[in-house]
Amino acid sequence: MKRLYFDYSASAPPSPGLGAFLASLESFKNPSSLHQEGQKARAFLESTRKEMKDLLGAKPRDKLIFTSGGTEANNLVFASLWHQECVGKKVIISTVEHASILSLIPVIESHGLIPVFLPVTANGVIDLDYYQSLLDDAVALVSVMLVNNETGFIFPIKEMARMAQEKNIPFHTDATQAMGKLVFDFSDLCVDYVSWSAHKFGGLIGVGGLLVRETCDVIPLLWGGPQEDAKRAGTENMMGIASAGYALKNVCNNVDSELERQQKLREFFLEQLAKKLPHCLVIQAEQNVPSIVSLAFPGVDGKLMATNLDLEGVAVSFGSACSSGALNKSPVLSVLGFSDDIAQGTIRISFGSETTQAAMSTLLEKITLVYQRITGEVS
Amino acid sequence: MKRLYFDYSASAPPSPGLGAFLASLESFKNPSSLHQEGQKARAFLESTRKEMKDLLGAKPRDKLIFTSGGTEANNLVFASLWHQECVGKKVIISTVEHASILSLIPVIESHGLIPVFLPVTANGVIDLDYYQSLLDDAVALVSVMLVNNETGFIFPIKEMARMAQEKNIPFHTDATQAMGKLVFDFSDLCVDYVSWSAHKFGGLIGVGGLLVRETCDVIPLLWGGPQEDAKRAGTENMMGIASAGYALKNVCNNVDSELERQQKLREFFLEQLAKKLPHCLVIQAEQNVPSIVSLAFPGVDGKLMATNLDLEGVAVSFGSACSSGALNKSPVLSVLGFSDDIAQGTIRISFGSETTQAAMSTLLEKITLVYQRITGEVS
User: What fold, for A18-249?
Assistant: First the structure.
């Protein structure tokens, strides 16, 4: 049997036709070189940047800095705080950010800044009154993700960014799990910085970027040549950037109808699941991307579920990929207030444009089978 | 006429067969994922790492951390100094390091360290007595490149690293321009850290690495997931790493005979050049990689030479790619003590495995033609 891949949020399959597209490109030379080979690479780089900015809703003077991925983009925003004027200031982040932000907490503190956490409830709510009460002159940055990587919760970033904007506080959102999973418009979103990663929407692994509002800036994390407007040194990852541009175009091409299709797949799956396994808990917010389904099987070992599904030919994840190796319970679910019973019994199903209803049906069958095998229950 | 590419040091052409090799690979999933797709990626990643370590002469317990390139690898070594214990300590670097090290000087100072410069003479000599006199308990790091990017000078890294080793001082070498241009052996070289970049020896742009001696360590520059033994967060650039492994194997395969061939090409070219353009100055050290030829035409505008050669179908560089856009004279030649007359009149020719003697002959013709056109001289 063909394997079924339900881990798009860890890494999406390549955008349709990506291999042929990349093979059709000449091998790129160094875009900093002045000769024709270099200038050809430069022209391709800049036209890709422009296309991507347009697709993302950025204005001509907004910046798009290419990085080695979402992690570097997130680190770059925070590294811009490592200077004297920020000492003693606060950084507001949610409790469910990606590891590339939560891991920075000791670094934030070592630079004399104070991290302040925004709690998120089990159904994905951030208390906006509390949030607003935190916004004052002592806040150097707010950073809240647009879509949570484990649950698919969509946070009210536009509203939150507007509240920060009123107080002239820079606002960053990690949109790594958002691109291709919802309609994205930088100008509409009112944020100042947006991180993204290409392999989450069908590009190659190893490339991402940071959108920066015209009026904002960053301090480099990587120092060296004057690439990326002197904000990110190092020869630009030409093939990676080409793949990002190609994949983003594909994703944006029919995002409305695709999201509608994904919503139907989700509803179909969850309806059937509720009938087959009524004990199963769906972790979701009122605003949730359709393509991430976080399921908890109380009292069952989620890692064992995922491993058994893998043996049955179905790839899902336990927690997110960045943490799945080492942990026995989902740190995100724990922080959302779920008991260990639930945080240990969770799996994440994430799908995308190549997922069919037939695949969802098979997934359902396999989950039921594996659940019954582990628990000894027969439906 | 087919264009002739003499800018391998900016970016080498893809390793023979690289496109087909990459196309033959399945699209990689996230190597941190626990399912079969993830574990396949993991296995490929680790076998590539092992192969590359072997080819580079690293021992099993030495580390190879993959990065987004040479710039990140260099920055990573220095970022490991940004802590309290290093305040007030010295960092010894040569005056001709790459921009990704020289640009760090204000950052080094902002972290309370003191940069100390090792001068290099016009014929590539570092005064080792002076160097030795600098080595004391107050030195936190020595960082000297193995091969200079603009001139091809080979520095006596083994000897210098041994002297540092005797005083327990960590030694880093930026070998970005060395891989494939000389025989490289990490174990023999006595250094603790080595940076490299794949696109300089036929891999893709956007991937590089840092070799770290078993007994040494780094503090991460990118924080997040536990990738790369928790030393470099971010999903590993699988295609980039695959390309690096492939290209390194190709390069190491017949490095001795290829270097001999390159040495003959260099000698042929320089002999003919001396006859045709006796005013031309060859910038070289006693130990020089054959494949980088730095030429100065006193009184002539090197940028104009390069531009005219480009129009004639020959790609060479003025200075190195990372700085060639903005400058009117080579910063490396200036620092080596050459007059403006010479530093403004320089071009860099760099070649490699696909360069034939016929190409060298055409290059010679074109240089002569362009030189005569610019100066009005007729030979």
Answer: Aspartate Aminotransferase; domain 2 (3.40.640)
